[in-house]
């Protein structure tokens, strides 16, 4: 069976390299390339495909939001995230519906193995990402230190502890700046702190960064 693939990435050089790697394989076929989220959704709506290789930072729609929309638009297609980000973005990608997460520094052999695994129904991760996931579940969740916070508020607090700005958090979680600003204000109130620095200290003391 030939795996039909859509590449979604806004960097032409990376798309070129990925295309060259894939086209040398007899069991894989690239049916299109997209440099933005809207282009990716248009491709998915126009023809059947098996696998989408998805970047996170796209110029219009965040790759996580594109992944969520693809679940409804093209449910048979699996999404393999290929990104430079090796942080908690992996958990948001999985929540959005991605079946795996590979870092852009992966070797050609690792990339091809991941593509075949994802297309066959497996979940696949770069070694560094797999280690992060294992550590996440091996360590008691720091979120239990803040039972007063909602799950989304804990996500935002964890990103605050990593030093991200409201704008960066909004982009990471596919939220509006206003929503993030309001959630941050709610976090301050629930943790009984007056500013960002105090909230970060509490989060880091609880092991969230």
Instruction: Tally the structural domains.
Output: 2
Average pLDDT, all residues: 89
- Portion in helices: 40-55%
In percent terms, what proportion of residues is strand?
Answer: 5-15%
Q: CATH fold name of the largest domain, please? A: Rossmann fold
Q: CATH superfamily name of the largest domain? A: Response regulator
Q: List low-confidence stretches.
A: none
What would you say this structure looks like, in words?
There is one protein chain. This protein has 209 residues and is of the alpha/beta class. It folds into two domains: 3-135, Rossmann fold (3-Layer(aba) Sandwich); 142-205, Winged helix-like DNA-binding domain superfamily/Winged helix DNA-binding domain (Arc Repressor Mutant, subunit A). It is built from ten helices and six strands; from the N terminus they run βαβαβαβαβαβααααα. It has helices spanning 12-23, 37-46, 63-73, 89-96, 108-119, 127-138, 151-161, 166-173, 177-191, 196-205; strands spanning 3-8, 28-34, 51-54, 78-83, 100-103, 124-125. A six-stranded parallel β-sheet has the order 2-1-3-4-5-6, with helices on both faces. Helix 4 (89-96) links the parallel strand 4 (78-83) and strand 5. It is elongated, with a radius of gyration of 18 Å. 34% of the residues are buried. The model has no long low-confidence stretch (mean pLDDT 89).
